[in-house]
Fold this sequence. Notes:
Trna Endonuclease, Chain: A, domain 1; 4 domains; eight-stranded mixed beta sheet; 49% helix; 16% strand; elongated; disordered C terminus
Amino acid sequence: xxxxxxxxxxxxxxxxxxxxxxxxxxxxxxxxxxxxxxxxxxxxxxxxxxxxxxxxxxxxxxxxxxxxxxxxxxxxxxxxxxxxxxxxxxxxxxxxxxxxxxxxxxxxxxxxxxxxxxxxxxxxxxxxxxxxxxxxxxxxxxxxxxxxxxxxxxxxxxxxxxxxxxxxxxxxxxxxxxxxxxxxxxxxxxxxxxxxxxxxxxxxxxxxxxxxxxxxxxxxxxxxxxxxxxxxxxxxxxxxxxxxxxxxxxxxxxxxxxxxxxxxxxxxxxxxxxxxxxxxxxxxxxxxxxxxxxxxxxxxxxxxxxxxxxxxxxxxxxxxxxxxxxxxxxxxxxxxxxxxxxxxxxxxxxxxxxxxxxxxxxxxxxxxxxxxxxxxxxxxxxxxxxxxxxxxxxxxxxxxxxxxxxxxxxxxxxxxxxxxxxxxxxxxxxxxxxxxxxxxxxxxxxxxxxxxxxxxxxxxxxxxxxxxxxxxxxxxxxxxxxxxxxxxxxxxxxxxxxxxxxxxxxxxxxxxxxxxxxxxxxxxxxxxxxxxxxxxxxxxxxxxxxxxxxxxxxxxxxxxxxxxxxxxxxxxxxxxxxxxxxxxxxxxxxxxxxxxxxxxxxxxxxxxxxxxxxxxxxxxxxxxxxxxxxxxxxxxxxxxxxxxxxxxxxxxxxxxxxxxxxxxxxxxxxxxxxxxxxxxxxxxxxxxxxxxxxxxxxxxxxxxxxxxxxxxxxxxxxxxxxxxxxxxxxxxxxxxxxxxxxxxxxxxxxxxxxxxxxxxxxxxxxxxxxx
Length: 771
C-alpha cells in the first residue's frame, strides 16, 4: 500500500515551505541563545516568541528542490511532508514500511525518486546497495498504483535517482541502466528548474521524455485527418491538432538523458518577452493562420489513404496516425506560437495548423531552422556549435559526426562535477565571469583539428581514425570526456592555483588561449606517440590516459612552477600567433624532460625565435648602455666639473679607473676618450660610489646598494649571452630575458625623463624571474 500520496492541489502550503532555502521555527525568548549556538539566526521578535531560521541541510534541500520541480511541472499526485511510505502486507498497519523520498503520479507516469547528496564531491561506496533497494520496489509500486490510482491506460513506472556531489563511474551507470533506474544529477536539476521557469508546464514532457526515451505512452496515440504531399524530395503531412497535444510530443532542443545540454538553448531559441506577448494575443482571441513546421521520424507515423475523386493530384487525403510517445516532433519553426500555449486555458480547445516533414535529415533540419529564423533574428555562430550535436548526431560523414560528438563532449565537461571544466565553459549568451571564461567555441575550434578523431586521409577517403575515435557516438563522447578530464586533471592538480584563478589577476591558464595551448600540446603528444609506433585508437580509455600521463604531469608542473610574472607573460600570448608561441614554448619544455619528444617544426620555430630574440635583446642592451653612459657622465660632469681630470678622478672608483686604463693601453687608445672604454657593469660601481647622486635616478627603490643596483648586473649577464649568441655559440636569449630588458629599458627612459616620482623602478626580480 502506497501511503502519504495526495492531490498536488492540496499541497500549496507544503510547496511554499519546500521552495524556501531555509527552515523556520518560533521559540520562547529564553531559548534564543541556546538555539543560536545550534546555528539558528533570529529573523523577527514577537511579543512572546522569536522567529528563527537556518539553511536546510544539503540532503533536505535536494529533496525539496526535486519535489518542487515536480510540483511546478504540474504533477497530479505528489508525496506529502516526510515522503511517501510503501507498506508491505495486507492490513493498514501491519507489515514493514519503506520510506520513499518523492513520489509523483500522472495519468501516464508513476515516478519514484530517491535523492542522494554529499557536502563535497565524492564517490558513493554503497551505490550498488542503494540502487538494488530502489530497483527492488518496482513491482510493488506498480501493483499499488494499479490498485489505488487506477486509470483507463497502463502507466509507465519510472524509478529515478537524483544525486548531488556524487561521483559515479561507468560501472555505476551501467548498473543503473541494467536496473532500469534513471540517474540525474545537480546539473540535470538545474536544467529542469530553468526549463520550467522558461517554458512553464510544457517542460514536464521534456522531463518525462528524458526518463522514458522512446517508450510507448498509452494515451498519446492520436488519429487526425491529413493531406500527404511532397516538398522537394521530402514527404510531408498537413493537419491540425490542439496545442495541448502538440506540446506533449514536441521539443526544440534535444537532450538525451544524462547528457549535457543547457536550458540556454531554449532561452536563445525562444524569448520570454515574445512568449508573454503571444500569450496575451491568444487570450484576446488571436489566431495563427500559418503552419507550425516540425519533423517527425517515419517510425512514429502511419497513414491510411482515403478515397478521393481527383486521381491526378499528387496530394493524398487520409488519416494520419501518430503513435504514442513523448518528444517525437522537432519544432523547426513556430516554437513561440506553440509554447505560448503552455499552461494557457485555451491549449486544450484550440487548433494549430501543422506542416510535418517525415524523416528530414538533421542537416536539412538545421538548414531550415537557420534559413527561417535568419529572416527574423540572426542565429549566433556559437549557438550553432552548441546545437551541432542535435543537428548532426546521425550524420553519415564521420568528420561531421565527430564535430557533433565534440559538441556533446564539451557540454558534458561543463556539467560533470568531477571535470576540471565543471562550471567553466562559457556558452552563447551566458554572462562571462572570472570562473566561467572558457568559451565553448574556443574549445570546439581547438579540438576539431585533424588528429583527434580523423587520422590520415587519401584521395578524400579516411585511411585511419584518430586516438579519440571509438566507433559509436556515445562511446566516443565518453572517450573524449575521459581523456580531456584526465589531461586537464594533470594540469589542474599540478597548477591548482593558476587554474582556480580563472581570468582573475594572476590567472591566465584556465582561459581561452591557455586552454587552446594545452589542447595543441595534447595533439602533438598524441602525434608523437603515434610516431613511436603506438596504435592509440586500439587502446582502451584507461590505457590511453596512462600513456599520456607523464606528459600531462610535466606540463602541469611547468605551469605550477611559473612565477606571477611568468604567468603574466604567458597570458599576454593572445590570438593565433600567441597560441602558436605558447604551444611551442610548452613543447620545448616537454622536450627537456622527454628527450624523444620533438614535434615537427619545433626546432625551426625555436631557432627563428632565438635569432629574433637575440637581435631585439642586443638592440635593447645597446639602448640601456647608451642611456647609462649619457646620464652617468652628465651627472659626474655636473657634480665634479666638465674637465676629464675632474670627473675622472673624483667620480670614478680607483678599481674602475685601473681597468679602463688597461683597456686603453691594450687598444692603444683607438676609441679616443676614456668614457668610450666603460663596460656596462662599470656603471654599477660608479653609481654605488656616488650613491647620493644616483640613488633616486638609477636604482630600484628597496634594499641596500647592491640590491638596488642588481638590475645592472642582470642586464650585463644577459649581454654576455647575447654576445655569445651573435658569435654562433649556443647561449640563446630567452623570451623572459628579452621581456626583462624591454621593461627595464622603458623604466629607464621614464626615470631619465622624470615621469616617475617614486624614487625608483620595479626590482629586477619583480620585473622578470631569470631562469
